[in-house]
Amino acid sequence: MNSSNIDVASVTIDDIRAAAGRLKPYVHRTPLLASRSLSEAIGVEVRLKCENLQRAGSFKIRGAMNALLQLSEKERQNGVVAFSSGNHAQGVALAAKLLGVKATIVMPENSVAMKVAATKAYGAEVVTAGVTSATRDTVAREIAEKSGAAVIPPFDDWRIIAGAGTVGLEIVEEWPDVETVVTPLGGGGLLSGVAIAATSLNPNIDVYGVEPRAGNDGEQSFKSGRIVTIDPPKTIADGARTLAIGERNFAVIRERVRDVVSVDDDILLDAVKLAMYRTKLVIEPTGALGIAALLSGVIKPRGKTAIVVSGGNIDFSLLC
After folding, report:
1. Is 60 considered catalytic here?
2. Is 51 labeled as catalytic in the residue annotation?
3. pTM of the entire structure?
4. CA 149, CA 146: separation in Å to the nearest integer?
5. pLDDT-derived band of residue 112, with 50, 70 and 90 as boundaries?
6. Domains of the chain and any CATH numbers
């Protein structure tokens, strides 16, 4: 698939509103919390969209549930398979449990142990033996081919994008005066969905994506105008250890995102700790990417700024 041939209108604000209606019985409408300390440090009014307080600990259940709810009855009976380093795994596992669907999740062997444990606790079968970030997709699709299960991709899927877009819909509905929205970037599901929602409701909103410097394939792609693939990145932001941005996601991001930037892991870890001390929120490194970019000055926002905190499933050994 070539991103230049993708119809970026495949997900509209109406699709995102439909997803919001579909998801309402199953997911939280997470708070948009003001932070005086962050506002003073960054120099503009800042509010945090707290997806770390979402069910399963991240925004991922939004896309996962939106996809599962659109499966046919026969597809549900055959079960689903997903591949993920952690948060998508938990999102699919919980969504499947709530709907009574069998789920198999393929996770790299180096996944955060607590994320693997949580995925199993939701009732999913977890496959990790011999799996890497580079092979998880292939292993999952092999399982699906043998079992007849439906594949629920982590980001490169219009259902996933529309579900993630409900985050942006909620931000603008609650804070119509918002001028800048900053979101973490891994494979691009969250950033592309939020960008569609925010800029559809107000074309003047600036949307930014933030990656860890060691895994800045999205930044390289955005700057070069083509999808860049990298080796499995070594970064504490495990939710952004993607090798390449999704084709559908990139098509949307090129059209609707102001810029994509990156931050070093040491700055990111400082942001995690600062957020915990000042806001009393538990935020995983990927979820703190936006905070890190704004505190370090990599992004200079125009005005009122919403930061998407994508998840809170932290490996607490990072803080030791």
Report:
1. yes
2. no
3. 0.95
4. 8
5. confident
6. 3-59+157-319 (3.40.50.1100), 60-151 (3.40.50.1100)
